[in-house]
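Researcher: Let's walk through a ligand-bound prediction step by step. First, I give you the protein sequence. Second, the SMILES string for zinc ion. Third, you return the three-dimensional complex as structure tokens. Ready?
Model: Ready.
Researcher: Here are steps one and two:
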Amino acid sequence: MDNFKTCAVCGKKAAFHSAYLKQEFCKKHFERMLMRRIRSNMVSNGMRGHVFHLLNENPCGFDLLDFLFVEKSGSKKIDLSSHTLEDFAIAVMKYFLFHEESKIRIRGKDRFSPLFNVSEDEIFSFFSLKNKSVAKNRRRGKDQSVIDFLSEIEKRRPGGMISLVKAGIELEII
Ligand SMILES: [Zn+2]
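Model: Step three, the predicted complex:
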């Protein structure tokens, strides 16, 4: 008996589990739902019709931005930050644990982080399904301890980091 998981959209063999949507997807629909989420982040934050400058704070996030967006010169230029779900989850957790103000924001003046709800796991899967290698973000010290802790929770309860980031948005921490 086949007991592999199937895509929530088409029923074919699933390639990836989305903690965000709590569903399995095949390669095609995984990519589609990831692109849709990023596009929806851009549209709901009024990023249409702008030209972009890509920032490389997080190497794997940068690789995805670089894959999706074309840098152009122009007047209404917006900086796109490469911070990921993990970066924002760490910032919110540090606010709660250590009373540290977040140094990163999802939206600032002339700046936006379209990957705030995209995990590094999803970025690695996106590129591995294309047989492309991607740079890993190296963390150290407190950030590494916090992400280790959050990853452990994520394993037990997928979607925990998303919930944390949503709480951070509601409380205007990030
Ligand atoms: Zn599918």
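Researcher: And what stands out?
Model: The beta strands are 16-18, 23-25, 51-54, 77-80, 107-108, 111-112. The CA atoms of residues 9 and 84 lie 26 Å apart.
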